[in-house]
Amino acid sequence: MLYSSCMKRYFYHKIENLLLVNKIVTLHRFSFDKDFASPGESHNFWEIVFAARESLVCEADGREIILEEGEVLFHKPNEHHILKANGRRAPQVLVVSFECKSEAMRFFEEKKLRPDDRCLRLFYSVFEEGERTFDMSESDPDRQRMELLSAPTLGGEQLIKNYLELFLITLMRSLTETEQGNPVFVEKSELQSRLVPNILRMMEESLGGGLRVEDIARQTNYSRAYVFREFKRATGKSLMSYYNERRIRNGADLLAEGSLSVREIAERLGFDTPNYFSKSFKRILGVTPSVYKKRIGAQRSKKMAKKMENGY
Fold first, then answer.
1. Is residue 25 classed as helix, strand or coil in its secondary structure?
2. E strand or H helix that includes residue 170
3. Angle at 45 between CA 40 and CA 47, to 5 degrees
4. Structure confidence by residue, pLDDT tens digits, 176-195
5. Domains of the chain and CATH, by start
6. Residues 94, 52: contact at Cβ < 8 Å?
7. pTM for the structure as a whole
């Protein structure tokens, strides 16, 4: 009690994480023959391919990319990719795949880079820890699960994660920082600003119904909670409320055109029944589709009559 008046009050500074690696999926060291070609794959996590020896021929969503020795290529989630040897000499390849939902990872989309020596030391450290933690004796391109060693090194999994995060952050710094600081780095707000336009585009492409939050989260590589929060923050409406309202307003446009019945429009927009479409329509626009169609027809007739009066 005598010392209570002398105790200092310290401020706890919350650490801002630029990016967090959530899970390691695979670590591979490959030595292929000169004619090797993978069948191609896509998955919902990131993959880094490093040409440790000799050049490689890579494909990413149909784009052919020559990966020279000493370069890394980033495959974003759900990107279809193929790996091939150059047909002249046998290559050596390092591959790491991992889950990271941080928006800063978008910096690496469609990137082919040449890491400097400091970055490479961190990258190799990922694999050094990997060999002390997991059974990496088999270089199998189809291997989908890494098994822990019977006696893995202390803290190996955490160091793999930490070295990979250090590699990514250091690589970003090496590409963006100058002697004057970091004026060209992509701001967090700019990375986030791409999310909502992408969601709106997905909605416009799916006005026939069937779009789910799970689909949006998977295609944008964000968690459901993050998608909900950022969309509400930007638009003031929940994601599915906005989507359903957009479908109804598209239905109103179709009613205004006059060529489709209420039933046909309900089917086109993916509503289970015309009655459900009508109820949703009235809840959002305040009138039933039939009343709306009559109003549009009356307005059109009134405009035509006015034009005739004016001699058009």
1. strand
2. helix 156-176
3. 60
4. 764 444 444 444 555 555 77
5. 23-176 (2.60.120.280), 194-312 (1.10.10.60)
6. yes
7. 0.58
